[in-house]
Amino acid sequence: MGETTATQRPQLAVSAAIFRDGKVLLVRRARSPGNGFYSFPGGRVEFGETLHQALAREVDEETGLKIDIVGLAGWREVLPSAGGGGHYVIMSFAARWRANEPVLNDEHDDFKWLPPDALGDLKLTGGLPEVLEAAERLIKA
Q: Does domain 9-140 have CATH number 3.90.79.10?
């Protein structure tokens, strides 16, 4: 049996629906996959990290924000497409903003704080509305 490279294995990732004053943070991806689509900040879990540690690190790296994690809002799978791409299992959490203002790294080129019911016709990554709905329920609980 041949050696499997990391890119040929499912990757575990995390994302955060971050709420502040009744609004949620969306960031626009500046590179593939999902270039030009709005999503929640997040990224891959590193070996030896807990999901919460990975989420706090990724949110800090991508936005500079400090957050309080409330709970798991859902998960989704992203399978490789015919054109390639990775295989990801993304665990999405509800979180509350705690400190700092967004400062984006080079993975994103825009951000918006929006009321959850005012996303309009923004191009969103797959599954985002469903995760947002579940996250909002956790925040309000």
A: yes
